[in-house]
Design a protein that fits this description.
Layout (H helix, E strand, L loop, with lengths): L2 H33 L8 H5 L37 E3 L7 E3 L12
Antiparallel strand pairs: 1-2
The structure holds iron/sulfur cluster.
Iron/sulfur cluster (SF4) binds next to loops.
Length: about 110
């Protein structure tokens, strides 16, 4: 076998291994996200960041920095699937936040 064929085969095997790793990682991430317990409103970190599972109930008095229309699903720290009711948040590791939720760390997606 020529060196060119050997390199091509090595490259193919490397790419195949990367593709397999990426696919299994994606599947594992989705499975983990679906299994996350919901973030409780009385969680100490959630309370300190004024997290609420339903942003529509916020008022200017209860959350002065809240802008109507803001919600976890539109936050750059949210990584839930499109249309999902909840998903992971970069701040609350191991918990799922409500797609309709909000906290003072909200940062609109670009
Ligand atoms: S950081 Fe963003 S996604 Fe996480 S709870 Fe706050 S508003 Fe929701």
């Amino acid at each position: 076998m020529s060196d060119a064929n050997t390199l091509s085969r090595r490259r193919f095997l490397s790419l195949a291994a990367l593709a397999a790793a990426g696919t299994s990682g994606l599947i594992a991430t989705r499975a983990v996200a679906a299994d996350l317990p919901a973030l409780a409103a009385d969680d100490p970190l959630a309370k300190s960041l004024n997290y609420v599972p339903d942003a529509s109930k916020l008022t200017a008095a209860s959350a002065p920095t809240f802008k109507p229309g803001s919600a976890c699903a539109k936050c750059s720290l949210y990584s839930g699937a499109a249309g999902a009711a909840s998903g992971p948040c970069g701040i609350f590791a191991g918990k799922a936040v409500s797609a309709k939720g909000w906290c003072i760390s909200y940062a609109a997606k670009a």
